[in-house]
Description:
Blueprint: E1 4-8, H1 12-24, E2 28-31, E3 65-69, H2 73-85, E4 93-96, H3 106-121
Parallel strand pairs: 1-2, 3-4
Antiparallel strand pairs: 1-3
Amino acid sequence: MRTVLFTWNYPEACAGKLRYLCMRLGMTWREVLPGEDALPLRRLRPEASAELPGSEASRAFDAPMLLFAGFTMQDLDRFTKAYREAGLPVVPLKAMMTPTNSLWTALQLYEELSQEHEAMTGERIGRKG
């Protein structure tokens, strides 16, 4: 599997820098469209599907979130180092795709990561409504 960084709600002002960083490292970057949030994570593809609704769909959370698919630990280490050196913003909600979470939807992943973040920091982030 090729390395793909899936993002949700990533700051537009930094997206170009992130895209360039991934390209330089031989990785694919893709912002997940709101219409894809109901799909199991394993069904996300490196390219956005033209058949899925995009901007018309709403999203239940607004916190930035990262999902690393197909990354080895070495890939993750290279990415993390380059990300920090590029001065890109800290994203507290991030995960590696695993056999377990690949069956979840984006909202389920968000809920799990935000609960973990809250347990560690006492801060709940990014839930709408």
